[in-house]
Amino acid sequence: MNKKIYLWLTCLVLLLSFLGCEAGLPTSPEGLPVISYFRATPEYISIGESSILSWDVHVAGLTAHQTLTVVIHFEIGIPEGNAVGRVGTLEVHPEATTVYKLTASVGGNSVSKSVIVFLGL
Predict the structure, then answer these.
(1) What distance in Å separates the CA atoms of residue 119 and residue 71, rounded to the nearest whole number?
(2) Does domain 25-120 have CATH number 2.60.40.10?
(3) Is 52 helix (H, G, I), strand (E, B) or coil?
(4) Minimum mean pLDDT among 6-15, 17-26, 70-79, 80-89: which range?
(5) Cis peptide bond upstream of 33, omega within 30
(6) Are the beta carbons of 72 and 100 closer than 8 angstroms?
(7) 80 forms bridges with which residues in the sheet?
(8) Which helix (H) or strand (E) holds 4?
(9) Residues 70, 104: contact at Cβ < 8 Å?
(10) What is the rounded CA–CA span in Å between residue 106 and residue 103?
């Protein structure tokens, strides 16, 4: 009888431990932005063609008095910053291979991710 109780208790502890896990989900401290993805499609283009930048940013525990700022910088020549939404797309027409940097900020917390659009002949 003691073996059955021990087995049931072990199964119960394992089940409760499993239910408390959030495996595979991106986690961050509250208030820190997370860039789920930032990509260029296609990454390789020819002169005169365009690429689509797409992104998704989220923040756990964002309060009403906090502001999420998302900016895309074009890192060629003088960097320009374009404020964009939390989720979106932007068609770009680079004239040379260009690095695009997405920066998401809340207060003093910020994260960045870059993609490159390669320009061929």
Answers:
(1) 23
(2) yes
(3) strand
(4) 17-26
(5) no
(6) yes
(7) 74
(8) helix 2-19
(9) yes
(10) 10
Through-space distance between the first and last CA atoms of the chain, rounded to whole angstroms = 78
**Res. 108 pLDDT band, cuts 50 70 90:** confident
Q: Nearest 5°: phi and psi at 25?
A: -90, 135
pTM of the model: 0.70
Could you give the CA distance from residue 45 to residue 97 in angstroms, rounded to a whole number? 9
Q: What single DSSP character describes residue 19?
A: H
Sequence-ordered list of residues with C-beta below 8 angstroms from that of 29, at least 6 positions apart, any chain = 60
What residue has token string 């063609």?
49
Q: Where are the domains of the chain?
A: 25-120
Tokens of 92: 């770009």
Angstrom distance (rounded) from CA 35 to CA 58 = 7
**Taking the CA of residue 14 as centre, how many other CA atoms within 13 Å lie in the half-sphere pointing to its CB?**
6
